[in-house]
Amino acid sequence: MIFGTRKTEMPAREDALPGRPTRPHLVGDRHLVTGNPLETDGPEGFEVAVVGLGCFWGEEQTFWQLPGVWSTTVGYAGGYTPNPSYEEVCTGRTGHSEVVRVVFDPSVLSYDDLLATFWENHDPTQGMRQGNDRGSQYRSVLLTTSPEQQAKAEASRDHYQAKMSANGYGRITTEIKPLTEYYYAEDYHQQYLVRNPHGYCPLHATGVSYA
């Protein structure tokens, strides 16, 4: 328990850390793999997806490897505290989840296929944890950027729930809701496994196929 708040419980909005009006840290200019800008929505016609499926270090790599992905960053979203630091998110008092922001070309990678990658690379039934990583920051979330994404995300959850149930898994706990704010994580978190090739990269996939 930290500051009297359990890290595996969502704080009430009024109990969340206050944050600050501006970002307390720097973010790099270019993606270390694709070479494209980090703080961007990409070229015209591209889409943005925001997903949380546990520790963002390894999961960012999962998405930048997909054909059609133009850029990825990691950050914090889904909670209350404006412009949080990593240390604040780790207290469980911001309400944010660790997330990956994916800029992609929908003519190459559909949102449905991106969702399949999301479901197949973690266990979405674990609530406020992913494997040994425990806390609200590790919860499973889909934060949508359009009504079309919201509808597809909800349909994909129902489809995958049937697959999970058939394989003996429980209820999916993934939050699906519109994105309100995305806060970029510190520079040293961006493309972490490029900076640290042997760094921590937990795998919690269920082995259940989305197809």
Automatic annotation (TrEMBL):
Keyword Signal attributed: no
Organism domain of life: Bacteria
Keyword annotations: Oxidoreductase
Active site feature: C55
Statement: the UniProt record of this protein carries the keyword Cell inner membrane: no
Catalytic activity: L-methionyl-[protein] + [thioredoxin]-disulfide + H2O = L-methionyl-(S)-S-oxide-[protein] + [thioredoxin]-dithiol; [thioredoxin]-disulfide + L-methionine + H2O = L-methionine (S)-S-oxide + [thioredoxin]-dithiol
Composition-biased stretches (Basic and acidic residues): 1-17
Similarity comment text for this entry: Belongs to the MsrA Met sulfoxide reductase family.
Function comment: Has an important function as a repair enzyme for proteins that have been inactivated by oxidation. Catalyzes the reversible oxidation-reduction of methionine sulfoxide in proteins to methionine.
NCBIfam families to which the protein is assigned, alphabetical: msrA (TIGR00401)
Protein name (record): Peptide methionine sulfoxide reductase MsrA
Gene behind the chain: msrA
